[in-house]
Specification:
This protein has 2 domains: 101 residues, no CATH class; 212 residues, no CATH class. 61% of the residues lie in helices and 0% in strands. The chain contains 17 helices and no strands. Helix 11 packs antiparallel against helix 16. The protein is globular and about 60 Å long.
């Protein structure tokens, strides 16, 4: 009998990797067929226009075949049969619901929705890109399924599913409170600027807003109680950035959206910004030993942001920027003169419970204390 290692580590032949791949592909296929049946409620309006349904059908079919084959392979080898049977059950249910052949008719475009499609696409893209990078050039040797990965995957899922509500809340907030600040003349002038200038401007203004609010999260005890959920991660990787209290997520989106709303950047610029911010939010937390030379003083890298999450004394309340590290250097909040990487991560003194539900309630249950005493 093959003894399975602890701590999420894979051993060749134990069936864990093939089992997890089988279950993941089957689950994503099941979610995909549900989105086929209820596109008006489970898909993101901004993404629908970019879909090639026939390509999605092919991808789903291939995923179902691979999932079923991997499950069969594990059963034949008598390893990780629980994952195999779970994958088969999901494959059978998906096929029973129509699988890749489900027809998608016309549907209303203004219904409330959950971002199930955004979750599927982001999970696939993130795992394919960042797990590969982390295995190719890791900062630390750690398993893909490191401690508390289940909690962070729950954050990843819930935050993605609630993206429709988050966008609705932020749009209402900005429109209702700051509609008076919109100037047609200013927006026309901004949209006449070169595309590259607009992109740099939207990244800079958004990062200035993010820096300001991020610093407040650390220096205002009440706000820190919410932000500490994000800082409780003790093993940094591409999934770590998903650990975030939903109320903080909405507040940050509202704040960052302000300059975008007021200046009225070209839609293609905003689309590019969304792609960049989505990539960098994952990239900054990645367990990747990436060096960019002198550019580290200009742009945020995993090394720069890892110091923000460190519980080393020199890292407390430092490295706030999300895009441009020069903001921290200019404002005196950058970590200087330390080793290339921090020793450990998380909240000084610990205390954060594990589990998505407990972390939702944590800011309301934990007594106030100074950010400096708890920060990491």
């Amino acid at each position: 009998m093959i003894q399975q290692p602890r701590g999420g580590q894979f051993a060749i032949g134990d069936g864990r990797l093939s089992g997890y791949i089988a279950v993941t592909l089957a689950l994503l296929s099941f979610l995909g067929v549900m989105a086929f049946h209820f596109p008006e409620y489970l898909t993101t309006p901004e993404l629908r226009q970019s879909y090639d349904v026939e390509v999605i059908r092919i991808v789903m079919f291939v995923a179902l075949v691979i999932s079923g084959a991997l499950g069969l392979w594990n059963v034949i080898r008598n390893v990780n049969k629980r994952a195999a049977f779970t994958a088969w059950a999901l494959v059978i249910v998906t096929i029973a619901l129509g699988g890749h052949r489900v027809e998608v008719g016309d549907f209303p475009d203004n219904t409330p929705y959950l971002g199930l499609d955004w979750f599927i696409l982001d999970l696939l893209g993130s795992t394919l890109i960042f797990v590969f990078i982390e295995k190719l050039i890791p900062h630390r040797k750690q398993p893909v399924l490191r401690p508390e990965w289940q909690t962070d995957m729950q954050h990843f899922l819930i935050n993605h599913l609630m993206i429709g509500f988050a966008l609705l809340a932020t749009n209402q907030f900005v429109n209702q409170l700051f509609g008076w600040a919109v100037s047609d003349a200013l927006q026309t002038w901004v949209q006449a600027l070169p595309w590259g200038v607009q992109l740099f401007a939207v990244l800079l203004f958004a990062d200035i807003m993010q820096y300001s609010l991020h610093r407040a999260y650390h220096e205002v005890p009440f706000l820190w109680r919410f932000h500490s959920v994000h800082h409780s991660v003790e093993s940094m990787d591409w999934l770590a950035g998903s650990r975030q209290h939903f109320l903080e997520l909405i507040a940050t989106r509202c704040f960052v959206l302000l300059p975008i709303f007021v200046f009225g950047f070209d839609k293609s610029v905003i689309d590019a910004y969304i792609i960049i911010v989505g990539f960098q939010a994952v990239f900054n937390h990645a367990n990747a030993n990436i060096h960019v030379g002198w550019l580290k003083y200009i742009i945020v890298t995993p090394q720069f942001h890892h110091w923000h999450h460190a519980s080393d004394k020199a890292a407390i309340d430092r490295n706030y920027a999300a895009h441009f590290s020069f903001l921290d250097y200019l404002l005196g909040t950058a970590v200087r003169g330390e080793a290339k990487w921090p020793e450990k991560y998380g909240i000084v003194g610990g205390g954060m419970p594990d589990g998505w539900i407990k972390q939702r309630a944590y800011p309301f249950n934990k007594p106030k204390k100074s950010a400096g005493d708890a920060d990491g």
